[in-house]
Amino acid sequence: MRAWLHEEKGLSDATIRAAGLGFNPADVYEPRGTWGLAPLLKGDGSERRQWVPAGLVIPLTIGGAVHRLRIRRDDPGDGARYVIVSGSSSAPMAWGLERAALSIVESELDAILLNQEAGDLAGVVAMGSAQAKPDRITHAALTAAAVILVSLDTDDAGARAAWAFWPEKYGGKAKRWPSIKGKDVSDARANGLNLRTWITTGIFGSEERFERFAIQTIDGGMSDGEALKAMTR
């Protein structure tokens, strides 16, 4: 699994540790009460167990507490590739919400990679799917941001959301910025896309504009948000 995360997803060991990624080698079935959940009964009257499938464990951790477990199953058979463990939060996974530029992706693994490669340039939000909507905290950050790069998967669902919900909700600062050389960030990296250059171009338009931004913030004393708003008026 670690080799797959390195080779296919481009994640470093430091990033894997920081994200709390893990591996569950076998399906687990436990009493729901063990997880602090109310009991549920099946149709035959027996108690439903808490299922944690085997696979890559992707936690959402907030303030040191685990709010969600998403499992990427190695062999889903006829079932779903990704399973959210019962009782989990539906909040987006996000880094750097205080930044003036934010990038929106679907997959949490894509977001972890993008934060690794360009988290100092833009905050990153993983929505989980093209249809998901921001929660209250994420909406507040998006409202305050100067630039929103909508980088949902380059499929029909991603395109529909990128052209509809995001510009309708956040106006002209929401810019469709799909990955090139692949349907998502991980595919694009594997096919040779420099993610840092891609994000820089999405935010600033060119290296020259990025240099102007640096001068305004470092020498001119402007905040990132002030400089970005000045450049995108």
Describe the structure.
It is a single chain. The protein has 2 domains: 83 residues, no CATH class; 140 residues, Dna Topoisomerase Vi A Subunit, Chain: A, domain 2. Helix content is 36%, strand content 21%. The protein contains 10 helices and 11 strands. Strand 8, helix 3 and strand 9 form a beta-alpha-beta unit. It is elongated, with a radius of gyration of 19 Å.
**Rounded mean pLDDT score:** 90
Report the strand count. Answer: 11
How many separate helices?
Answer: 10
CATH architecture of the largest domain: 3-Layer(aba) Sandwich
Fraction of helical residues:
25-40%
pLDDT below 50 for ≥5 consecutive residues: which ranges? Answer: none
Strand arrangement, major sheet:
7-9-8-10-11
SS-derived structural category: alpha/beta
- Strand residue content: 15-25%
CA radius of gyration? 19 Å
Largest sheet: 5 strands, mixed
Annotated CATH topology of the largest domain: Dna Topoisomerase Vi A Subunit, Chain: A, domain 2
Please write the string of helix (H) and strand (E) elements.
HHEEEEEEEEHEHEHHEHHHH
